[in-house]
Every structure is written in structure tokens, then in C-alpha cells.
Amino acid sequence: MKKISCYLLILITFLLIGINNVDATEIKSMTELNQVLKDATVSGTTIKLTKDVSLDSDTIILKEGTYILDLNGFKISSIEGPIKVDGASLTIDDSSSNKTGLVEATTTTDTKGYSVMLSSGNLTINGGNFGNTTQDKGLDIYGGTAVINGGNITGKNYGVWTTFLQDIPVNVTITNGNINSKNGICVTYQNTNADYKNYSVKISGGNVKGTESGLYAVEKSIPFVKISGGTFEGTKYGGLMILQKTDNIDEKQSLDKIIEEGYVNEFVSKVQTMRKDAGF
Predict the structure, then answer these.
(1) Burial class of 130 by CB neighbour count within 10 A (0 to 12, 13 to 18, 19+)
(2) Is 113:134 a contact under the CB 8 Å cutoff?
(3) CA 247, CA 172: separation in Å to the nearest integer?
(4) How far apart are CA 277 and CA 280, in angstroms?
(5) CA geometry: angle at 191 spanning 234 and 12, to 5°?
(6) DSSP states of 100-157
(7) Which of 160, 280, 134 has its CA nearest to residue 230?
(8) Whole-number pLDDT of residue 217
(9) What is the dihedral of CA 94, 97, 103, 106, to 10 degrees?
(10) How many Cβ atoms from other residues are within 10 Å of residue 37's Cβ?
(11) What are the φ/ψ torsions at residue 50 (nearest 5 degrees)?
């Protein structure tokens, strides 16, 4: 029994070491950010890349402050996710003429990897390229306010993933940009007892494409999604796929909730409903 307990203690110790060794650099000032993004130029709240930056297994976590990141045609990469916004305000753009600025995860595990994660604070995307065809998601949003005004966003499974957790406010606005993945945009939830008045996804523009679906919406999320513009294409399931967790769902009623009055989208040519009993 003592030998088993000893082995168990060793196993727990190794697990805790593994958890604590997850690489992350918390940023609370422009000085700290500039130390990570070496050789970048700083002017006020704007930091401009002058070369590619590889963070290896590290993640930049922006805890406070206001930052404008100009990719300037260069790349920021890490294994599982280069940037997480957790309380700060971040705007990303690309001032380069060729628009090759890129934020990506280099993992080849298709259930991992994101370019930018938003857990709280503010994220604005005005330009740049986010993701690749091997990382799981382009943008991972589960808290805070995100505004997408441009850029190219991709991921193997989801371009933009947004989910509602434990009453944490989530507000996403998409006015423009190109989103391309297996499922372009996913809107889902993880807490069936949450107060969903704090959940909002508004789409007024942009081009959303998926090899499966353009917009992938879990049934209970539908009342909190409003579409007034943009184009949606899905090769397998159509522009809009509704994942249902109940026996019956009225497709027309769902569309009436999700598509604002007066907006007709020729690319939403097919609505697919799917039954899924298991939790998402």
C-alpha cells in the first residue's frame, strides 16, 4: 500500500510540474511587450514589428493596458497560441503593402492551436492574417468584446469560435473580413443555466466560407445571433447549419430569429439541422 501511495504521489508531482510549466508571459505595459517582441518599434500605444517573432512554446498574455499591434508584413508564431487577451485592449492591423502579416500556431494537432484568444477585455481586428490549415481555430473567443473589421482568418476546424461560459459577457461584431475553415464561424455555449442576455454575435459583413458550413450555430445560441449582411457558403451543409439538441426545430422560425428583417443572403442556399444528444 505504501509503495502504491508513493507512486501516486510521484505521478501527482509530475502532473503538477507539467501544469505549472505551461509557458506564458504576462504583459501589463508596453515596455514589457516590447521586451518580448524584440526589435519592434514603439510610438505611443502602437508597436510595429520589424522582423518575424517566434515565441516557441510561449504565449503572450495581455493583462492590462491598451495596445495597437502593427504586423507590418511580419509573423508572430508559437506552438499552441501566440496571443491571449485577458483584460487588456488590443487592436491588430497590417500596414505592409503586401499584407502578409501573420499570427499563427504551429501545432499540427488539429484539436489545438489558435492565433488570438480573448477571455476578457477588447480585441479589434482591422487587418492581418490569422491561422493556418493545421491549427484548430483562428480566433478563440469566450469572453470580452471582439470587433472584426477586416483580415483573413482561418483554422482547420473553425475560423472564429465563440462560446458562452459561466455568465462571462461575450460580444462579437463582424463587419468585414474573410473567414475560411471547415466551419467558418461557430456559435455555441457550454453552460445551459447561464444568463444569455450577455451573449451577442452580430454579423453585418464579410465573406464566410466552410468546407462543411459557413455559420455553425448550436440551437440555443440562435436568439443571440443577428445577421444583417455578409455572404455565407458551406460546401457540405450550406451557409447555415443549426445543430439541434431537441427533437423538433422549426427551420423557418430559426432563420427568422437569426436573420434580421430585410436582409436576403443569396449564399444561404441551404439550411441543415442536425440532431446531437451529447453535450457539445
Answers:
(1) buried
(2) yes
(3) 29
(4) 9
(5) 105
(6) --EEEE----TT---SEEEEEEEEEE-S-EE--SSSSEEEEESSEEEEE-S-EEE-SS
(7) 160
(8) 82
(9) 180
(10) 21
(11) -120, 0
Closest to 188 (Cα-Cα) out of 208, 203, 170, 175: 170
Q: Which amino acid appears at position 68 of this protein? A: I
**CA 228, CA 240: separation in Å to the nearest integer?**
14
Which residue matches cell numbers 508559437? 78
Vertex 116: Cα angle to 110 and 121 (nearest 5): 140
Q: Is 56 left (phi over 0), alpha (psi -120 to 50) or beta?
A: left
| Among 98, 36, 88, residue whose Cα is nearest residue 62 | 88
Helix (H) or strand (E) holding 226: strand 225-234
Residues 6 or more apart in contact with residue 53 via CB below 8 angstroms: 36, 37, 38, 74, 75, 76, 77
> Distance between CA 211 and CA 158 in Å, rounded?
10
Residues of the chain with pLDDT under 50: 1-22, 247-253, 261-280
- For 165, which DSSP code? -
User: Residue 198 has what pLDDT?
Assistant: 81
- Position 130 scores a pLDDT of 98
Q: pLDDT, tens digit, for every residue of 122-131?
A: 999 999 999 9
Write the DSSP string, 169-181: -EEEEE-S-EEEE
